[in-house]
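hi! just following up on the protien thing from before. the input was this:
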Amino acid sequence: MYIEQAYSKKYDFIKYLPIPILFFLLILLNFVAILLLDIDTEALMKQQIEQSSENAVFLQSVAPLAFFLVMLLVWVKFVNKQSIKSLTTARKKVDWGRIFFSFGLWSLITVATTLLAYFSEPQNFEFNFQPVPFAILFVMAIVLIPMQTSFEEYLFRGYLMQGLGIATRSRLFPLVFTSLMFGLMHIANPEVGKMGYLLLLYYVGTGFFLGITTLMDDGMELSLGFHAANNLIGCLLVTQDYSALQTPSILKDISEPSAGYDILLPVVIIYPILLFIFAKKYKWTNWKEKLTGKIVLPKQDVTIDAIGHE
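and the predicted 3d structure came back as:
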């Protein structure tokens, strides 16, 4: 099973703490600074873009998370002594077909819904296409966005899901915890500052969707594909003045943002439909056990306590 395979004699929960603590500490410091200094994140980003360019600000925003991905994978390999394959999937090898299926499906849905919004309310959009900046963005995005989204998936649906699952002997606790933390990770985003904290429910809901997908499928492949499509197609297709990733995209959304209960539409309708599609295609069964069952570890010649010390 996906969580159990991370356990070995060398398992020590303390080793799982440094990178998540460092990452969340940086997010917390950023959020506290915004509150204490009363920073207008939208105005700040606009100023940064005027001083450089959208692509330069995009690079500054995404590159650190790409670096965090490399750091996390190196840590897993040499400190946790765990293979990257076992962090990714319980299958004998990574199923790239699953990644591309999820990526393609969500890309299609994203393009379709964006075109529907554009043609139904064209006054809410501007044609923003600029060939040279877009070409530069495209090259950067296809390299950095999958690294950015993979870091978030490997941290939440991989590293923390497995580490907390083994430490607590539970599937439900890491599902709930990582989903909540995934939502809170976005608390300093300009979108949240513009639209309000209700938007965090969307991020938490997305965390639950990706966590359920990972546990039911015994691997991260579907989540990796979905998340990469969501951010990559999004940043290439449409941007807003208040978004965390402002880019020289094809379209620009100029409508006045509002965070009503309609933001939960993906969570309560679209995500369940995706789960149904995945479940049918990959023949998911035994939902209760996979989502809420106890973790049963293989017997070793050593024992570990509640937090994983030998």
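Confidence is low (pLDDT under 50) at residues 301-310.
Residues 131-168 form the longest helix (38 residues).
cheers
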